[in-house]
Amino acid sequence: MSTEYILTTGAVVEGEQMKHEAKTLIAVEPGEAESLVNSGMALRVDTAKLDKYETETNRLVEQAKKEISAMRNSGNPAHTKEVKEYEIKQIRQRLEDEVNEINKQWQAEKAEMEKEATELYHTYEVKISDKERQKANQIKDDFLIAVATGNAADAMADFKERLNYVNHSTLQALKSHYSELSPILDDNFTATQKRTLLNEINREPQERLATAAVRQLPDTADLNYRMWRAVTDRK
Fold first, then answer.
1. C-alpha of 168 from chain center
2. Is 222 left (phi over 0), alpha (psi -120 to 50) or beta?
């Protein structure tokens, strides 16, 4: 089954278990990708450039496999055992050289992508309006009062639900209330629950997540080639 690259915007937790760390590039099945993206826990990553190089590598691998098979099964009298071994070795070497060249091209492309993403990361600013500061303060106050007077689990669920509907400026404003939130979280929730909530508050805008995504993309575009080599080199 095909997989899709997505970048987690916050920690993905199942029960009390950490399934995926925040800002982690993961390859998952399309159904899980859709679920995480729709819930706001992940962003889709554009892998069109990587896909281009991987597609070319896969084409070359398939071509080499056909040539090797044809040589092995050749009935040409001139194709003695020694000739077949030599020709197959040449095909494999040509393929390795071609894949190495593709990897160099991809690595250069990735370096340029990372440079552009890093520039965007350092120049992007989160501006906070008075309205957004007030909203952050209200969310914080409502949570603290709810924990003190009601059910802590319900207070946490409400807090996290409200975070799904605020922008990054409001999240940035919420960070200034860490000193008030931290002891309440320590006293009423598990370390995992606290970490998950803080990761939600620390969720960054897509413009600042590009660097994390690009850096975690594969350094090579030759997965199928390496898998094929792992099998054929043992024969």
1. 20
2. alpha
CA dist 97 to 86, 88, 92, Å?
A: 17, 14, 9
Structure tokens at 52: 């281009």
Burial of 174 (0-12, 13-18, 19+ CB in 10 A): buried
Instruction: List C-alpha distances in Å: 182 to 21, 39, 106, 176, 196.
Output: 20, 25, 44, 11, 13
Distance, CA of 126 to chain centre:
23
Q: Which of 214, 212, 222, 177 is nearest to 198 (CA)?
A: 177
Residue 74, phi then psi, degrees to nearest 5: -65, 135
pLDDT digits (tens, 9 = 90+) for 35-76: 888 877 888 888 999 999 999 999 999 999 999 999 999 999
Give the pLDDT score at 1.
47
Residues of the chain scoring pLDDT < 50:
1
Is-contact 201 163, C-beta < 8 A? yes
The answer to whether the CB of 205 falls within 8 A of the CB of 127 is no
Nearest residue to 43 via CA among 214, 171, 166: 214
What confidence score (pLDDT) does residue 212 get?
87
Q: What end-to-end distance do the CA atoms of the chain give, in Å? A: 27
Angle, helices 130-149 vs 152-163, to 10°: value is 160
Of 154, 195, 188, residue with least CA distance to 17: 195
Are 64 and 94 spatial neighbours (Cβ–Cβ below 8 Å)? Answer: yes
